[in-house]
Amino acid sequence: ETERARTSWERCLLYDNSAIADIFAGQLKSTLECTHCQYQSTTFDMFWDLSIPLPRNKSSSSVQECIQLFMSKEELDGNEKPMCAKCKQKRRCTKKFSIQKCPDILVLHLKRFSQARGRTKLNTHVDFPIINLKLDDLADVMSTSYE
Q1: Residues 37-56: what's their mean pLDDT?
Q2: Which residues make beta-bridge pairs with 31?
Q3: How far is CA 91 from each of CA 5, 20, 41, 65, 74, rounded to the nearest angstrom?
């Protein structure tokens, strides 16, 4: 899997190899798992920023908690069911994101608007440490610490 991630990264750099990519681009790992047969499908994609959700019904949160929420397993069911490559049928699956390669500078976008009951702004306070933001437990490969 590490080899597939490296190959995917090198393919992305063929189209976007620049000083900006060296600083701001990271690699996201997306894993789909069929709940019927447990087959896992993994893809790797370049990212420039992460759009992270805010926890529901909380007055405050930390940026680490928001990132963990982004990376938590999500169930795909109903109209969202993907085709399982092994079952050859649309099946309920779980989807999980993780950071395969963290950029030198991580750009975060807080998803402050909710589509529930119209478009409303979420006023959740997000604690963001100015120094020593530790993301070591969130990345698959790289040790990540932002000062």
Answers
A1: 94
A2: 42, 96
A3: 26, 39, 13, 29, 14
How many angstroms separate the CA atoms of 100 and 95, rounded? 15
Does a structural domain hold residue 16? yes
Is residue 147 included in any domain, yes or no? no
- Type of residue numbered 146: Y
Residue 103 reports pLDDT greater than 50: yes
The predicted model scores a pTM of: 0.81
Phi, psi of 45 (to 5 degrees): -135, 145
What is the count of structural domains for the chain?
1
Give the phi and the psi of residue 73 in degrees, each rounded to 5: -65, 140
Rounded Cα distance, 120 and 118, in Å: 6
- pLDDT, tens digit, 9 for 90 and up, residues 59-96: 888 998 999 999 999 999 988 899 999 999 999 999 99
Q: Which domain holds residue 64?
A: 2-142
Print burial letters for 68-87: b (CB count within 10 Å at least 16), e (below 16).
Answer: ebbbeeeebeeeebeebeee
Count the residues in the chain. 147
